[in-house]
Amino acid sequence: MLKKKHVILVYIIIITTLLLSCKSSKLSDLKHNDIVTLSGKINLIGNIPFTKYALTVTKHHYSIILKTEHDSLKTIIKNNLGKTLHITGKIIIKDIKSADLKYSIKKYELIVTHITL
Fold first, then answer.
1. Cα–Cα distance, 95 to 98 (Å, whole number)
2. pLDDT in tens, 65-87
3. Is 108 exposed, middle or buried (0-12, 13-18, 19+ CB in 10 A)?
4. Given pLDDT bands bounded at 50, 70 and 90, which one contains residue 2?
5. What is the pTM of this model?
6. Residue 44: how many CB atoms within 10 A of its CB?
7. Gyration radius from the chain CA atoms
């Protein structure tokens, strides 16, 4: 009887952890090289010929550029344009400075490792 209670408790902890790890993050909460799971809509951003695929997280009002080297993941992204997906990957944050070094902005990219429809 005692073992069954422990097993149930372990299952509850695992399920809670999985549910909490899937929630969307604010852009300011993301850190360089963090592995995150974000939910959002796949969109094209930029002007031709500089368009890129991005994940738009509508809850927090930001878009993050998607990059991957796997052809199968690129195909999934292209085929699901305009649809909502859960994407897991590593966050890359780059500081971009102006030519006169007066201004600095952060560029966020997500290196995609897994996609859940």
1. 10
2. 999 989 999 999 999 999 999 99
3. middle
4. low
5. 0.72
6. 12
7. 18
